[in-house]
Amino acid sequence: MLKNTYLQEVYGEASRRSAGEKEFLQAVLEVLESLEPVIERDPSYEKLGIIERLIEPERFIQFRVPWVDDSGKVRVNRGYRVQFNSAIGPYKGGLRFHPSVNASIIKFLGFEQTFKNSLTTLPMGGGKGGADFDPKGKSDGEVMRFCQSFMSEIFRHIGPDTDVPAGDIGVGGREVGFMFGQYKRLKNEFTGVLTGKGLSFGGSLARTEATGYGACYFTEEMLSHLKGESLKGKRVVISGSGNVATYCAEKLLQLGALPVTVSDSSGYAYDEKGIDIALLKQIKEVERGRVSDYAARRPGAKYGENCREVFTVPCDVAMPCATQNELDETSAEALIKNGVIAVSEGANMPCTPGAVEKLLAAGVLFGPAKAANAGGVATSGLEMSQNSQRYSWSFEEVDSKLHDIMKKVYRSAAEAAEEYGMAGNILAGANIAGFLKVGAAMKAQGIV
Ligand code: NDP
Asked: Which helix (H) or strand (E) element contains residue 407?
């Protein structure tokens, strides 16, 4: 609940203007709640309309994406790009291809991205995009034609110093490759206009692993700072089985923890011995199969048909890595009952506000997405640096920079929480730390 009258008015106006955009309003409210002490300490934010400007995207593009399926039929999807905030650098944020994509989801992701990118310490503004296209079940040819059509519109809005998209749900190396090829053809330019590229054409080593690895580095910092513990020996429940989930599980195993689950929208696998990464990659990355295939082929693994029940599996740490609002109050209660000590968000906004409230009230450590999954975009930032230099760093160099960045992200969130009287509340700290840098840049750049 907002107590500050200025923020109440701003949120009231946003609710009127963006009526029906529930994910976007959810993300805005969470940030405004955290910013109350900051706004109260410095009245210039109100005078300069910083919050009103921060929640209104600089630009929102919606467009038609026509393409031809394998039977020769013309299909039409809806594409989006939101260029949310460029105060601290070119817009940067992924593209999501999933049937659920709509304006609200793209705006919530772009809004969050602004704070996340600020936290990484790298000069990147916030953006996001995507389409309500489902790559699942489509042939490579269909995916390529869709990607080419999508790029045929957004190429005029992006560029290495303007807006640099990357992957997200449904957009991996294959899709980024097709979009890069089309951009290059249209512009006759070989530039770092997308990140998450293949290694043979400007991609960075460790970008594929970065979000999952980074989430583990962040969780390790949080456990160590707030509880004097580490991930070693911890049982970890992971949801999702895509890019973030896979590399989160891989790093957990390297750190001596035991990831015991993965899931998709059809169900979850519980693997008491610990997830077999090679098998998971074979099924998900090579065969583009399902978690049910993993459970069927892994001796001893069990399969449950309700993906939400993944959070009923007893664990010390939970890392939701699938999608927004997948972990609700019921899931939070189950985790608390089973003695969870930390929840760290690999996905964007996977915990509902009710779940977060319950976890914080129960004293569970909470790593918010903006901070915990910032490793992906941070490494995209490193890919941009390498592209500008026309140079590539080794896997170890990128991984070690990622590790350093995640420590800094944690530290700045923890310090901001302390400074504003909320020590240990990493959610509030991440929102505040992310905001302060963007807010200062907006003040300095005048009314734009
Ligand atoms: P992928 O497409 O690689 O994997 C997504 C996974 O989530 C799949 O297992 C998918 O299952 C599952 N999923 C998607 N939608 C739902 C749903 N409605 N209900 C249950 N499960 C669902 O995506 P990523 O791993 O890249 O992204 C996962 C999350 O991490 C997203 O929130 C994304 O925004 C966030 N993120 C990703 C980053 C990256 O670098 N890739 C960076 C920072 C955040 P199914 O196959 O059944 O759809």
From this structure: helix 395-419
Ligand 1 centroid, distance to 211 Cα (angstroms): 11
Task: Please count the CA atoms within 13 angstroms of the CA of 130 that sit on its side-chain side.
Answer: 29
Residues known to be catalytic: 128
pTM of the model as a whole:
0.97
Question: Which residues are near ligand 1 (CB < 6 Å)?
Answer: 167-170, 211, 240-245, 264-266, 307, 321-323, 326, 346-348, 373, 376
pLDDT, block means (10 residues), the chain with 448 residues? 96 98 98 97 97 98 98 98 98 98 98 98 98 97 98 98 98 98 98 97 98 98 98 98 98 98 98 98 96 98 98 98 98 98 98 98 98 98 97 98 98 98 97 98 97
Tell how strand 267-270 and strand 74-85 pair up: unpaired
Tell me the DSSP string of 72-119. S-EEEEEEEEEEEE-SSSSEEEEEEE-TT--HHHHHHHHHHHHHHHHH
Cα maximum dimension of the chain: 63
